[in-house]
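To assess whether ligand presence alters the predicted conformation, the chain was also submitted together with flavin-adenine dinucleotide. Input:
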Amino acid sequence: MVPVPKTSNPRVIIIGGGFAGVKLVKKLKNLPVQIVLFDRNNYHTFQPLLYQVATAGLEPDSIADPLRKQLEPVKNFFFRMGEVFKVNPEEKMIETEIGPLDYDYLVIATGSKTSYYGNQSIMHNAFPLKQIPQALDLRSHILQNFEAATIANDIEEINSRMNIAVVGGGPTGVEVSGALGELKKNILPKDYPELDFNQMHITLLEGSGKLLGGMSEFASNKA
Ligand SMILES: Cc1cc2nc3c(=O)[nH]c(=O)nc-3n(C[C@H](O)[C@H](O)[C@H](O)COP(=O)(O)OP(=O)(O)OC[C@H]3O[C@@H](n4cnc5c(N)ncnc54)[C@H](O)[C@@H]3O)c2cc1C
């Protein structure tokens, strides 16, 4: 069993310390329950600014907020770091990488996965952007490509290392493309003076023919 103090109050286990999980912990703070929050990380990720980390505009710690610190004022609260693998509703038990734990109430707030709309090629070749390690991988990949471009002799290789395709013209795709455009204009030419940035192309691909499809006509046209 995951060590958690025994209590006569009902135990509420929340899986996921994203916006939903954190908000729920705060809402439950004055109720006679024991709250146990599980997350695979001990920090909350502020996903709206992941694109800034991916494009080197922000450092990762700017968007990672320690869960224990954020939820410290909640007295009936316990945090345990660990991936939850399985829920066993008959026994009211979860299985995690640090052991099992029983619950009275269970809330699954594990967020969503990147959707590739069934396109295997994008799934195998693109970088998803949901977690801080993914944003850092993308950032590192982009910068390593520019390093490689500076020592490449073949013009095709140089161009392929400088060109970036962004898949999905929703808010994140538009933000990432815009941030890459700013990098191209203001930062990269100073960092890599030997490269010709007229040859850098940022291509935003969107299947519906409309950017920011879920937003207003005005925002869509402007994007
Ligand atoms: C790049 C990006 C930009 C966005 N920009 C905006 C924006 O500008 N405005 C806006 O309103 N919304 C934005 N969103 C959407 C918003 O971030 C999500 O709607 C919100 O984070 C969902 O909250 P959640 O708590 O449901 O899940 P999440 O925030 O995804 O949290 C889920 C948590 O569960 C944990 N977890 C998952 N599985 C397990 C497991 N098996 N075991 C243990 N822990 C687990 C994860 O580590 C994570 O901490 C953006 C999302 C992304 C990806």
